[in-house]
Amino acid sequence: MEEPELSTLKHFIASDQLSLDETRALLDEAYALKYNKGLITEWAKRTLLIGKSLGVIFFDPSLRTRVTFDLAMQQLGGHSIVLDVGKGVWKIEHREKVVMDGDATEHLIEAAKVMSRYINGMAIRAFPEGKSWADDKLDPIINGFAKYATVPIISAESSVWHPCQGLADIMTIDDRLKGTKKEPIVITWAWHPKALPMAVPNSILMESAKFGMDVRLAHPPGWELDDDIMARARELSAAAGGSVRVYDNFEDALSGARVVYAKSWGSLKNYGKPEVEAAAKADLRDHWRVRMRHMERTDKGIFMHCLPTRRNVEVDGDVLDSPFNAAYDEAENRLHVQKAVLLRSLRAE
Amino acid sequence: MEEPELSTLKHFIASDQLSLDETRALLDEAYALKYNKGLITEWAKRTLLIGKSLGVIFFDPSLRTRVTFDLAMQQLGGHSIVLDVGKGVWKIEHREKVVMDGDATEHLIEAAKVMSRYINGMAIRAFPEGKSWADDKLDPIINGFAKYATVPIISAESSVWHPCQGLADIMTIDDRLKGTKKEPIVITWAWHPKALPMAVPNSILMESAKFGMDVRLAHPPGWELDDDIMARARELSAAAGGSVRVYDNFEDALSGARVVYAKSWGSLKNYGKPEVEAAAKADLRDHWRVRMRHMERTDKGIFMHCLPTRRNVEVDGDVLDSPFNAAYDEAENRLHVQKAVLLRSLRAE
Amino acid sequence: MEEPELSTLKHFIASDQLSLDETRALLDEAYALKYNKGLITEWAKRTLLIGKSLGVIFFDPSLRTRVTFDLAMQQLGGHSIVLDVGKGVWKIEHREKVVMDGDATEHLIEAAKVMSRYINGMAIRAFPEGKSWADDKLDPIINGFAKYATVPIISAESSVWHPCQGLADIMTIDDRLKGTKKEPIVITWAWHPKALPMAVPNSILMESAKFGMDVRLAHPPGWELDDDIMARARELSAAAGGSVRVYDNFEDALSGARVVYAKSWGSLKNYGKPEVEAAAKADLRDHWRVRMRHMERTDKGIFMHCLPTRRNVEVDGDVLDSPFNAAYDEAENRLHVQKAVLLRSLRAE
Does the beta carbon of B103 lie under 8 angstroms from any beta carbon of chain A? Predict the structure, then answer.
């Protein structure tokens, strides 16, 4: 994975794209918006993006992302237009040079160029196809829009990254723990009936590494994250004076933890083979679920999950209903960090 | 059915929740908004809900509800975000304590708590499941949101009630008849190919009883409304000096009627058995449809229906196209009463 | 086809409805909005439609139409409500006097009358049913709304016309060529796997004829446009001092062309028989596609297409990626002409 060159652009796609200082600056803006810090008045905030519009384009479902981008634009004085590809909007082809005699009606190149004539930026959600990791790792939809659009592209979760989630997560940790440096975080795989994308674990891994946390990544053998992602996380962690360790049993990582971040993801080893993956994890179901007894072994740790989560499958309902749960704060912070990202991307457009 | 304790809350869920006086106060506000009464100017109205946002969450389709909630917020200076569950938004599980290894991705508890972080209120439409009346009568989705949300919940039709429709209906009657007291209203079942929900007849029954009308409920034997609903209607009717009588032939109820309110609903006796229900009503099709000759037997009565209606099935097209038809007024009044409800629920939030 | 009498109404449905002068006046308004001409300030523009709302009703998918109507209302100070019929909104029946015991839940009459109570105008997209051209030519949905609504109806593409596309097209030509009079335009059929509607070729044919262009309509034998459309185009063309000629090979029409407008459409001869149509055009695939060598034979012509287009099927990707391509301008101009149409239709409502 090459060093990204995106930080000079207004696109926001990768969780390792912004430096620690740039990320902190975004969080400072998000805090100011959340807690009404600074000189700006409530009314002035409502005019920051006046006359600006955002296209919010979903290739896949969403609740938090859908609501927060719309609301963020509205509360800053702008306007959003939400589009669901394949439902109401034409199906979009992303492969370059393809002969379009199949199912898709519109090419990404036209969609990107046309939308750029109308709006000031686009937030795009496109999950992986789930057949080949080599293909999905190229993130063709989000990168295609970034290549062909002439306005800023903000990822609302792609195959590789969920950068706004990563920002909301690190803001939640920083806000609840009053700092992040060397704080122990357990990022743990959880059992789930489906083979889910890796964007969320990649992003929280990268942000917690970037912020110098004591990162404890736990997953069963076979559920390793991508090697390039791991290498990049270790690099950022070292630069920030933190650490990244991998555990094959999340229970071994709980002692002293201040954060337990649970999330399921699919196995790269069995990528594109859901039945094989399901069989390989059949025995893991009872063990890899966060329960109250796990939270009680932490150092007053907070429970985190990007949501949606399956109650009593990834995590016990008891944990979600307890004071350990910080997932609603996480969800709320999506609104605040996305406002900061939108101001960075759209204000000068 | 216990006495509801909702009137002190800002939720708006049940048609028997508000007293006659409270309901009249809402109608007064709706009249003021509709006819520009009072001191408030057109421009001032546009700022009443400035900075407020409403989530409008559909588990089922809608035309009037979808347009009027959006427009009401917009015209009062606020903003709405419309979400279609299962289309674009994750499928939602409402059963408590369930192990979520099935189809649904998100639990109602998370949806309610997360949405409460973003917006100032929610309007929710959730039709009955249609399998067990005992289950549907508990109205698990609307009551689940009311339980777990920390912002006001407004029903946009649930299994048991369609309270905004009931308000629009009684406003239409009051406006067209210049009063409601002891006015004869025929609420009649109509034939329809499907077994439809009872929320609309429950709500118009309750409001007309509450307002002291001479209520004539007509349906074939076997299509009785829920016993608790009937008892509550008789109680409110008695308190208001009105009456509630049941007819097994709507033609017997027409004489002197000022309102004919037609609506189909399913049989509680055959609840969850659509084929049995369909067979039981096969012979009723020709008879239970409102025609011009019926309207002509009333005392210059108005024809009402919540819409959508099936032309030449529930009611003849002739009636809908005649001056008897007040259904478009009813539909319009949805906008005005919902503005009043939104002001009541959201203004102080 | 009778002379339309729509120009005194505020509906905007047919591409031959407005006279040349009326069309020019709309384009002048669109230019003023696009290039900020005239005395009106950026801020004043944002208040032109304040308090107005537009229903945007889709019976079929859309990208450009969906975004531009919403954005146009928003940028002029108004509000739009986008509805997808059959997805989230009830399925609508348009046949008059039908007994509605089938699939559709709501009749167009009720939808039109109820929506007229809420909003100030409606933009409606309804593609042809594709079974009988005699039926589709009557354009029952758009004309049904125009008949029953009491607010202006704007076509967002019907069976017969795509009038806003036609306006955007002629604006693009006029803007790029600095005039239209006697300029040669090739309107050419292109091969496509499906039998597509004729609304777009009808509209560009009519506008280019109305503006006195040297119109060269090219299609294989069997893909003639409707006789009444052709007769009306010749009539408008004659009045404007232009010409309309038909070619059975688009390559013969390229010499000196300033515009190549490519678009596929279905064969009237085999209307409603997609398999027969597909077989009849199997041999045409290689020939009827616009390539760079075709554009190079024009007089620095621009390539136009309404979009979406299938790359390497209707037109080579090379052409779309070249400076010949004016399709993104066309798409952008949809926004500007629709603002002009909305101002014409809604301002006084």
Answer: no
